[in-house]
Amino acid sequence: MNNSSRARDLKLISCHACGLVLDNQEELRHSRCTRCDEHVYTRKPNSLSRSWAYLIAATILYIPANLLPIMLTTKMYNTLSSTIVSGVIDLWQDGAWDLAIIVFTASVVVPILKLGLMTFLLISTQRKSTWRQRERTKLYRIIEHIGHWSMLDVFVVALLITLVHFNKLALVQAGPGIVAFAAVVVLTMLSSMSFDPRLIWDTDEPKSSTPPDNGQTNG
Amino acid sequence: MQSRLNPASLVICEYCDAVYSRTPLKRREKAHCLQCGSELYRNARVDIDVMLALTLASAIMFVIANCYPIVELNMSGLSNRATLWDTLLFTLDSNVGVIAVFAAASAFFFPLIQILLFAYVLIPLRAGRKPRAFIGAMHALREMQPWSMVEVFMLGAVVSVIKLTAVAAVAAQIGLWGFATLTLLLTVLSSFDLQDLWDQSEALDA
């Protein structure tokens, strides 16, 4: 499977911003794209550690995001607090099962999937695993594209607190859980953006005639 | 390697670093990476006329979506209606003000700036020249893309409406239809590959 020529071995860099392919014969570390002036690099700098940092922060915040209430609903002097999961259960019990599935997917499945799959991708990439590289790359592409849908609940809370404020008759207030939840979504997005999928394929030493670059002593 | 290939004729897969030489594609054809299956490029020519038309339509729809209320709620003779900005300002005043900042950026400012930058880039390109801040505008467009969430806000509004029908009389207003249309327009507009615009702008320099 691994028989294609790779840009790293041919000393080529493609600009991540404009796609221009640049010749990197001198193996420049800090060069700029000749077309769009963006910093170019063979791999995103500190990709794995930055991705881990965001992921760990997101995982920690995921706990208060699910334990703290995201909404407080007051109806006739009765206040009910709901968390992300209890909100989905309420929808289901009200018979709005289609809506329950949408919210369940966006607020529960997608965040857990992102946290789990990013952890899996980071560990397998760090171990230079050659197991199902093609499928793992595809997983990354999926994670990249579904992440922002989890913001659904954040917008729902903002709209509901604005619409439902009839003093003691009916009142919806936001709970602190929603802030933690929004932070989880932003952090998982930053984590997947920091991850460089090309590292999935960097399982062997560069096939180059020059001595391998040790990454530290260049200056 | 004996002779260096001309880099301009090459394409590198951004997901796995495999190198290919570009071949011309027929209309609607896409080139995929053999190693990892990601899309490499499409039939290159972006249609600037189509993009500009979508941009102008988005601009009009953006104004409509933001000027009209999205939802109206009636309960025991009282009624509340909310535009996007009502929602943002109300949330800003609530105990979760930070949410309003995020929502304002992702549902209002980023989409607005995207539309303005597309117009700024495309109008001169259509006339055969590059705008002065072309490079900066193109970078801003690329960086804003993942944080622009009109489509998520739209779905959020729909979910809110359905949630409220259980307890009160709710009516979707013009603003909701505006956002639905804006979502469609922006989805088509952002499906164009910015890298093709770079390639096309380069032809103007030559």
From TrEMBL, chain A:
Locations listed in the record: Cell inner membrane
Domain of life: Bacteria
GO cellular component, one term: plasma membrane
Keywords: Cell inner membrane, Cell membrane, Membrane, Transmembrane, Transmembrane helix
InterPro entries documented for this protein: PqiA-like (IPR007498), PqiA-PqiB_transport (IPR051800)
Cell membrane is among the record's keywords: yes
Transmembrane segments: 52-72, 99-125, 146-164, 170-190
Pfam assignment, any one: PqiA
Keyword Glycosyltransferase applies: no
Protein name: Paraquat-inducible membrane protein A
Species in which this protein is naturally found: Stenotrophobium rhamnosiphilum
